[in-house]
Amino acid sequence: MFFNTESSAILLLDDGTYFEGISFGAIGTITGEVVFNTGMTGYQEVITDPSYYGQLITFTYPEIGNTGINNEDNESSHPSVKGVITREVSMTSSNWRHEISFDKWLKDENVVGIQGIDTRALVRHLRESGTLNGIISSEPKYSIEDLFSFLKKSPSMIGLNLVDKVTTKHPFKVKTIRSASFDKRIKNRKTNPYHVVAIDFGIKQSILDRLVAHGCEVTVLPSKASISDVLDLAPEGVFLSNGPGDPSAVESGIKLAEKLIDYEKLPVFGICLGHQILGLALGGKTFKLSYGHRGLNHPCGLKGKVEITSQNHGFALDSESLNSDKIQITRFNLNDQTVAAISVVNKPFFGVQYHPEASPGPHDADHHFNHFVTLIEERRRIVD
């Protein structure tokens, strides 16, 4: 029987599978695509990553919440996920950096949670059946029929443009690193910074931090910025950010990338959704993965060179759709051989499917930021 106690909650999938559990966070009823992240750390960064906008995130690590929440590790100003699914939540914050408990933070941010379910069984089900829409409810006023009715109205991720939900409304500049207290990688010491325009499809704060750390001054523009909006700022390079939803539905971003490719004069670097948009602008196609890549230990490489990478995406570029005469696949995901990185032959355009800023995750791929600024430096020498 559902909702047999005041703290009861249910997770219902659109194929009829359900899990009964215990409510935490906000009380409510919320629908979305149910996905899972296999990382053992970084729940705060994951929940605030705009690439997860509108999703119900399942954590495979059995307990989360034990380090609480602090104000330094957010990737955006508020949580991006709609709901959180986990085996167990720690109500005690055992970390000197924490400023608020995990449960209190979710309540304040109106994020619905369910714990006490068999997350291993849930993840195995999603791996076998493919990603499903689901609904979390901790409100006993709703019947199972009501929940199914709500669930049927939840849109498919295919064809869904969510970028408009997360992009900045107004341009802004970033010149300094948010916090350097724990990241001991190179810091920004450049007296003549590279001027980069970043197109915000759902950019993470850590990406901005890494660009600044590698010597860039960044002007962030909304996702619907035009080629004239970009060129009027006289940038030395253009960055296409990560973000949520179906990349093929982000028509304004694809058109901008096409114009940048035609312009040819500026280095272009894309991460995750930005990488896919770059591939689409080059004539490629994307497809939806069965259950996506979301975790911190995805091996990517080619010809004996391997990087362990942080990933968060549900779509990928179709390798057969890429013109091999002008597009080079520089890395594959070694788990399933999907495209992990591309570059354009003899042009300063490249993209990576993973997250080289590694927040959370390993630092193997940070060199891609260095490659980007190297391309800018080469252009600067030619222009000068």
Shape: globular
Strand order of the largest sheet: 10-12-11-13-14-19-18-17-15-16
> Kindly, what is the distance between the CA atoms of the first and last residues, rounded to a whole number of angstroms?
73 Å
Helix content: 10-25%
Radius of gyration, in Å, reads: 21 Å
The CATH superfamily of the largest domain turns out to be Class I glutamine amidotransferase (GATase) domain
The unreliable regions are none
Order of helices and strands: EEEHEEEEHEHEHHEEHEHEHEHEEEEEH
Main pleated-sheet profile: 10 strands, mixed
Total number of strands:
19
Question: How many structural domains does the protein architecture include?
Answer: 2
Count every helix, treating DSSP H or I runs of 4 or more residues as helices: 10
| Structural class by secondary-structure content | alpha/beta
Strand content: 25-35%
Look up the CATH topology of the largest domain: Rossmann fold
Q: Please give the CATH architecture of the largest domain.
A: 3-Layer(aba) Sandwich
CATH C-level class of the largest domain? Alpha Beta
Structure characterization notes:
With 384 residues, this protein is of the alpha/beta class. It has two domains: 145 residues, Glucose Oxidase, domain 1; 221 residues, 3-Layer(aba) Sandwich (Rossmann fold), CATH 3.40.50.880. Helix content is 23%, strand content 30%. The strands form three sheets. It has a ten-stranded mixed sheet with strand order 10-12-11-13-14-19-18-17-15-16, with helices on both faces. Helix 8 packs across helix 9. The longest helix has 17 residues. It is globular, with a radius of gyration of 21 Å. It starts with 7 loop residues before the first strand and ends with a helix.
